[in-house]
Queue: 2 jobs
Job 1
Amino acid sequence: MFDVKKIREDFPILNEKVNGKALVYFDNGATNQKPNQVVNSIVDYYKTTNSNIHRGVHSLSQKATEAFENARIKIQNHFNIGSSKEVILTKGTTESINLVASCFTSIVSKGDEILVSALEHHSNIVPWQLLCERTGAELKVIPMNQNGELEVDKLDILINENTKLVAVNHISNALGIINPIELIIEKAHKVGAAVLIDGAQSSPHLKIDIQKLDCDFYTVSAHKMCGPTGVGVLFGKQDWLNKMVPYHGGGEMIKEVSFEKTTYADLPHKFEAGTPNIAGVIAFGEAIDYLNNIGLENIEKYENSLLVYAQKQLLDIEDVKIYGESDKKAAVISFNIEGVHPYDIGHILDQQGVAVRTGHHCTQPIMSYFDIPGTVRASFSFYNTIEEIDVFVSALKKAIRMLK
Ligand SMILES: *Cc1c(COP(=O)(O)O)cnc(C)c1O
C-alpha cells in the first residue's frame, strides 16, 4: 500500500521551516530529498567501513570493495542491464555524457552527423558541440512543436546514413514531456547509429528496462533518485565500450603501466580512473532499495495523480500558461503568469515556504523557442501531497495578486 504519511517520516527535511513557513519542496527536478536510510548508509560507511577499494588485501578494504561492487549489482538489476561490465560509475549524467562524447572523438569524422533534440538539457548539447568541433562532424536537431513534443515525422530525414549517434532525453527536465525514445532507437539502429538516452529525469519516475529499450548508452544521476550528489551511472553496450579508448587515465583503470606501453583494465574499470565516491555509490544502492520497496509503478501512479490535480488547479487560474501540454508527461509543470517575470513568482513563493525552480532550467534553446526568459517549474516527488499542492496554489494566487 502506498502510504505517503509513512513515507514522509523517512524524510526529516520535509519538516523544516523556510522563512517561518512549512517547507513545500517542489524542486525535485533539480534534485530530490534523501530518506534516512540513504543518509544513514553514508554515516555508517564512514564510521565502520571507510578504506579504499580494489587495492588493499586488508579486511576493511575488502569489505568496502564488496559493498561498492554490491551497489553496482543493485544498479545492474534495477535497470535490467545485461552485465555488470556495462555499469560504469560516474559523477552523474553530465560526466556520463561527456565520457561518451569524448570517447567518440576517434569514432566520428567529418561528414558524420550527431543528432540531438530541441528538448535537451545543456549537458546533452554542449558535449556534442565540442565533439563536432574536434571532428568536423555536424550537429543536427530534432525540432519540437508548440506542445513541446518532438516532431517525429521529421525523423526519417534527420536519421540517415550520415548519422553516427542520436542523443535524446527520456523525459525533458524543463517541460516533463516523455519522449518517444523507442521509436528513435528503432530508427537509429536501422542506419547503424548509436543512441544515448539521457535518463536523468526518467530514472526517478519510471521503471527502466535497459535491455528491452536496447539503447546503446543510458545515463542516470543518483541525486535525482534519492541518492547522493556526485554519483551517476553510464550504461554502455560492451561492443561500444570495448571500441572506446579510456576517457580518464590514472589509477584503477589500468592492467599494467610502463613508460613504453600501458594496458587497460577490463570493463567496467577501464572507465573508472581514480578513487570514486565510494560512500556515495553504496548510498545510491540504498536509494535503489528504498525506491524498489515502494515500487516504481506505485511511484509513477501516485505522482501522476499529483500532476493531474495540480494541473487542473493551475489551469483554473486566469493568466496561467503551461508549457508542454502533452498527455505523455511526468510530474513536472512548467508555467508562466502572463506579464510577470518567473523570478518574481519564485521569490514570493519562497517567502511562503514553497520551493520551485525558476529560470531556463539549463535548456535555453527551449526558452528561445517559446520566446520567454524562463518559466516557473514545479516538479513533484512521491513524498509530496495534495495538501502541499493546495498550499502552492494559494501561495501562487497571492503572488499574482501582489504582482499584477
Ligand atoms: C539534471 C539533468 C542533467 C544533468 O545532470 P547532473 O546530475 O547535473 O549531471 C542532464 N539532463 C537532464 C534531463 C537533467 O534533468
Job 2
Amino acid sequence: MEQDIDGEARAARRDAAVRAAVEQGLLGPEAPLAGLLDVVGIRESAAALRAAFDAVVAPGTPVLHAFAVKAAPLVPVLRLLAGEGLGAEVASPGELALARAAGVPPERTVLDSPAKTPQELREALALGIAVNADNPQELDRIDGLMRSAEATGSAEATGSAEATGSAGTTGSAGSRSPLGIRVNPQVGGGSIEALSTATATSKFGVALRDDGAREWVVRAFLDRPWLTRLHTHTGSQGIPLSLMAEGVAAAYALAEEINERAGRRQVDTLDIGGGLPVNFASDETAPTYAAYARQLRAAVPGLFDGRYGLVTEFGRSLLAKHGTVVARVEYAKSAGGRPVAVTHAGVQVATRTVYAPGAWPLRIAAYDAGGRPKGGPDVVQDVAGPACFAGDLLAVGRALPLLEQGDYAAALDTGAYYFAHHYAYNSLARPGVYGFAPDGEGGVAFAVVREPQPVEAIVAEAGGAHADALTSGLTPRAARPSRG
Ligand SMILES: *Cc1c(COP(=O)(O)O)cnc(C)c1O
C-alpha cells in the first residue's frame, strides 16, 4: 500500500504548510488567499513518471517527458521539473516563452498549438523545437518553411542533430526540428466531453478514420523524408486508461504501416500525449504512472522494444495533488437554514469547478484561524467564493466541520489547471503562489513562485494608461487642432 503511505505523507505536509503559512503571514486578514505548492510532492511525481517508463522500455530507448505547460504555467515550476529531467510541451507563444524563461532547452520542447501562426512555426523551426503538424494546411506551411530554410542554408538550419536527450531523431535538411503529424485515432470520448480529444469530431489532429485520411497521412510521410514522428493525445480527465492505450495502439499501428511502406524506419518516435486522470476524491494517487506504463506495454508491446523513441506530455497528473488553494473565511452566515462560508476562493481560482461542478468536484478541508485542521462534527454547508454571482460556490451542501469567521477553507488537489489559471472576473486579484518544503529544522520554508497581484497591476492591465482613449482619443480629424 505504498501509494496510501505517500498520500498520508502528502496530507501531513499540506497540513504543516497551511499552519506555517498562517504563522508566517502568507495568509491572514490582509492576505486572504494563497496557492501553495508542495515541492517534495512535485519531485516525487516527476521521479515516479521517469521510473514508470524506465521500467517498461528497452534499455537505451530515448524518452522525453515533456510537461504540458498549460497545466501549471509558472516559470519556477517549469524549472523545477526541468531539474527533474522533464521537458516542456507548449501550445502557444506564451507557453513557449515561459518554457524558454525557465531554461528548458529547445531539444526538450515540443510545440503542439492547435492554431500555430506562420511566425510561431518559423520560430519553432529556427530554434529546433519539435513540432507536430495538426492538419494538412499546417503541413503546407511547414513545407514552405523547409524549402526556404534549405534554399538559404542558414546557420540555424544546418541539419546537425547534436540535440542531446531528445527522443531519437536525426533531424532533417531544412531544420533541426523533429517534425511529426498529430493524428486523432477517433477511439471515443470519456466522461468529460470538453476534455475528450479523440472523439469522431474532435478539433485536434488528422481524423484518422475519416475517408481517405489514413492514406493521406501515409503519403504525407512518403513524400517528406523529414517527417519522423507521430503524435496522439487521447485526452484527459475522465478518459479510461484502456481508451488511452487504444489511442496509442492506433498511432503505433500507423507508424508500423508507414515504415513498412517506406521500407525504412522513417517514423522513429511516437509522442503519446498525456492525459493520465487524477483522483480528486482522496489523497491516494490513482491511477499511477506505473500502472499506466504497464497497461501500455501490455496493449502495445512493440512500442517498447527499442525501435521507437518516446515522448510523453503529462500535465495534470504531475501537479494536481501538490497544490492547495487556501482561502480565509471572511464571513460565516446562514441562508434558508443553511450555513454559508463566504471565502476568498471562487470562480477566479476554481473556474471549472464553479462553472461545471458536476465534472470537477473538489475536496474542501477546514482549518481554524491558526491554520490547524478543524475538528468538530460535520455540518452541511456551502463554501462560497467572493465573486458577484450566485453560482460562485466552491462546494454546495458539503459536510465539513463548521467554518467560522477567520477560519480557512482549502481546496485540495488544485496544483494543475486551478490557481495558476486565473480568471479575472470582478477584477479579483491573482493570488500569490508559494512553494513549500521542509526547512531542515522541523518547520516549513516558503519561496515565492508568483507574487500576489497588486491592484495597480489590475488597473494597468485594464487600460489604465489609456484612460482618455474613448473620450478624446477618437476625436474626428477635422475637429483636432491642426499641427504645425
Ligand atoms: C492538455 C494536453 C496535454 C496534457 O494533458 P493532461 O491531462 O494535463 O495530462 C498533453 N498533450 C496535449 C496535446 C494537450 O493538449
